[in-house]
Amino acid sequence: MSQGSRIDIALAGPDDVEAIAALFAAIDLHYQNQTLDPEEALEKAALYLREPDNGAHYAIARIDGTPVGLACFALFRHGLIATGSVFLKDLFVTEAARGSGAGEALMQFVARYARDRDVTRIDLSVDVPNTGAARFYDRLGGRLEDSKRFYRFIGEAFAKLADKG
User: Taking the model in full, what pTM does it have?
Assistant: First the structure.
């Protein structure tokens, strides 16, 4: 990416299926070393964007019109005094666009989204080995929260919990 390129951030809509599919494929390749074939990826991305139960918002970062980053987040209202929080599930910038400012622009977009809805907190988690992401969030002023524990139900534990009747 060229220095001084324009970074545009916008919430994804129905016309962004191809961009979402491409960015999800990049995320899959980065974390799982595999992804779906392009046609199946498009079908799945289209489903995600129109799925009524999907509470996620997808913000896309584009540099000179090319999709280079994605923030996947949700707003939660969980009290009356604490007005809620935004949970950032994923922030991803393609390898070629890292260092371009796209990640910080996505974070600023999510913060403004939250603020505009009277929410004053963003929560997220970082994989322990991802020290680059930890440094990024530290640089932006994020605070490592040691008063919480992160739990995951997956595989057999998930199946067992879901099957309890």
Answer: 0.90
